[in-house]
Amino acid sequence: MKLEDSWTVSGIHYGTGRPVQVKIQGTQIVNVSPYDSADHSDLPFIGPGLVDLQINGYGGRDFNTHPLSVDMVASVTEQLWQTGVTAYCPTIITNGDQEIEDAARTIAKACDQNTNVEHSVIGIHLEGPFITPEDGPRGAHDRQYVKAPDWNLFQRWQEAAGGRISIVTISPEWESAPTFIERCVDNGVIVSIGHTSASPEQIQEAVKAGARLSTHLGNGAHLMLPRHPNYIWEQLAEDSLYACIIADGFHLPDSFIKVALRAKGDRLMLVSDAVSLSGMSPGTYDMHIGGRVQLTEEGRLCVAEQPELLAGSAQMLTWGIGKLVSSGLTDLKNAWDMASIRPARFVDSPHAGELAVGAAADLVLFDMRGKDVTVCQTIKGGQSVYTRA
Question: Three-class SS of residue 181?
Answer without folding.
Answer: helix
